Amino acid sequence: MDLEEVRMVRKRYLDLLLTRRNVVAVGVGYKEVGGRLTEEPSVVVSVTKKMPEAQLAPDDIVPKTLDKVRTDVQETGIIRAFQARTDKWRPAPGGVSCGHIDITAGTLGCLVLRGGELFILSNNHVLAACFDEETEVLTDSGFKRFPDVKMTDRIATLNPETHEIEYHYPEEYHEYEYEGPMIHFKGRFIDLMVTPNHRLYCKKTCGHRKGEGPWQFMTAAEALERYRSGRTTTVRFKRDGKWIGHAASNGSAQVYSIPQVKVSGSGFNVPHYDLETFLRFLGWYLADGSCCLHTHPSRGTEYVVSIRNTEPEHLDEIERTFEDMGLNPQRSKGDVRVYSKQLYSYVKALGKAEDKYVPQDIKMLPPRYLRIFFDAFTKGDGCHPSRAKQRGTSFRCFGSKSERLIDDLQEIALKLGLTGKKSIRYGSSYNPDGKYYTLSVYDTKLEPVVCQEPKIVHYSGKVYCLTVPNHIMLVRRKGQVVWSGNSNQGKAGDLILQPGVYDGGTAEDQIAVLADFVPINFGTGAPTCPVAKGVESFLNWAARAVGSSHRVAAFREIPATNRVDAAIARPLSADLVTREILEIGVPKGAGEATLGTRVKKSGRTTGLTTGQIIQIDVTVQVRYGERVAVFEDQLMAGAMSAPGDSGSAVLDEGDFVVGLLFAGSRTTTVINPIQYVLQALNVTIAGA
Questions:
Q1: Phi and psi (nearest 5°) for 581?
Q2: Where residue 396 sits, what CATH number does that domain have?
Q3: What is the pLDDT of residues 137-195, one digit of tens each?
Q4: Which residues make Cβ contacts (< 8 Å) with residue 153, sequence separation at least 6?
């Protein structure tokens, strides 16, 4: 029979064949016998699954012939329009993009059962947000860009109950490559650019204070929706906080001691100054003071500390301050100086004009003492009442060649209940030939509203964040400070999206909620042992006694061994997911892999790949941003994965799940043995 006759038969029976159960396609092709194509034309009927005739209703059986033309039944499975693994899938199979609303994206591994209920299985770090590269965070050693932050830095956080400023060690450090949308909040007093899933700390506003809600966390995407929902629905940000402070480390609440210096003829001397008097001196000095060595013909080396000022009444105050310190000031036109080796040694360590700074223990003082320092500095560096009048508010402007000094002043302003903006200028009386820094300080606009709708901008680069105990930290971008939420460790009930945020997922793409996860042990923490705390205190006391500005922090070492990076999420409804794994099918259950086992996985980034187990009993150090976790008894395969494949189920050639992919490199793939995962989460594979 020729091909044209077969085509006519296909056309005649097409509608009838398509009504049969499991039939998905009807065409013309060469008949296959014993797995080989013959030269006989036939009507080819494609079905989702070939079944014995005894299991089919008579009307669902495909006849062996149609008008003497033989048929050929072929199993093809469900035929779908091709979708990218980063698209939205409903029902969602294993192997597609998914992630926590505060994480970019990973892979939906497979479905598991707990107590008869279906759950999605993936990694902790997939199911368990962030700032751009220009954002800084305030630490106990000043403002730092996120790549420079160490786990030994204490981060400035805001207590959400009391709004007190508290310094805490970070719990987590987050850093990853990101390409996608960022939301840019920009106003006269705010500049903040974050990922859509990042948590803000703000108030909902309705155009007036009476209609405002409480301070709360909301994602940047949720805040953006408020701007789009109405002309007066905006958000209010917080820039201030309550600072309690504590006594200086170099003395008591009333006395300040500077490091000992050997003085000719009298041995070592450790001067003690009245704290308030010393703070006035320090404010004057850092504003416009200097120190130098002078060789006198008869007296030898002289240690000179001088402070300049153009106002006679200010020179009077400087002179009285030196006298109150027990020194003998000498005044000339526009200058007051003293000769003191101890004082010279102290201020010399505070740097020259380009790198002056405020000592850390001074910045930690209570507000009443910081105010004394700040007022003296203001008189020394000058302010601009005419510009303040234009703004209708109390306004001060400082300038310096030292960026660190301006940063310190901005920190002190915060602790005084003020707020400031740091700017960079070029060419002025501060530095005619180069760059200098200014700080504009206000006592209003502490809780500004961003009136302009935030912009969505495309971003490609690294994003960063920290997890801190109070979940609110002080950040700065383009010189503007604001309190912002942090990246938060996952908790039960958190939204799980398909696709993940990195792939464009939003709250509307919620597919599940986080149900359970195995915490990852990173191995270090603050000390709980009183001996360790005592050693830390003693070493810091000794450092202060010899004038060192360095401090130590004790950390405990924890046996940082892990076996799984795993989490499960509860689908909102069973019809949103399928037991099928893309390009693999439904797994048959759980299996065990050993050396040489051939394996495969279906992942978000690299799709269906195959490999071989090349190592077992592996102990491996896995880097999560700047932190490292140790995993033991792991499986290792060759190169069969890439970033974004985390969470993929790994199966053997018999379609049994043998592991959960969670890490890798250019040449290797690291896999949790599935037995450990199932045991840790008390689940079983939802197989065929």
A1: -105, 130
A2: 3.10.28
A3: 999 999 999 999 999 999 999 999 999 999 999 987 877 677 778 899 999 899 999 98
A4: 139, 140, 141, 144, 169, 170
Q: Is residue 352 located within the same domain as residue 429? A: no
Distance CA 402, CA 439 (A): 11
Both 342 and 368 in one domain: the answer is: no
Query: Looking at the 3D structure of the chain, how many domains does it have?
Result: 5
Q: Which helix (H) or strand (E) holds 403?
A: helix 403-415
The contacts of residue 161 (CB under 8 Å, 6+ apart) are none
Residues 6+ apart with CB under 8 A from 439: 397, 398, 399, 406, 409, 410, 413, 420, 421, 422, 423
pTM: 0.62
Lateral strand order in the sheet of 69-75: 23-33, 36-47, 69-75, 65-66
Residues 175 and 58 occupy one common structural domain: no
Residue 501 lies in a domain: no
* In 335-471, beta strands by DSSP E: 335-339, 395-400, 419-426, 435-442, 455-467
Strand partners, 656: 589
CB of 585 within 8 A of CB of 600?
no
Q: Which two tokens stand for residue 22?
A: 């499991």
Number of Cβ within a 10 Å radius of residue 5? 13
Print the domain residue range for 382: 362-442
Output the CA angle 113-115-119, nearest 5 degrees. 35
Number of Cβ within 10 Å of residue 111's Cβ equals 27
Percent of the chain at pLDDT above 70? Answer: 85
Cα gap 431→303, rounded to integer Å? 26
Task: Write out the two tokens for 337.
Answer: 């100086």
What is residue 539's predicted lDDT score, i.e. its pLDDT?
45
294 and 211 co-located in one domain: no
**Same domain as 668, residue 584:** yes
Nearest to 554 by CA among 527, 520, 575, 581: 527
- Report if residue 247 sits inside a domain: no
pLDDT digit string, tens, across residues 359-396: 999 999 999 999 999 999 999 986 554 444 444 455 78
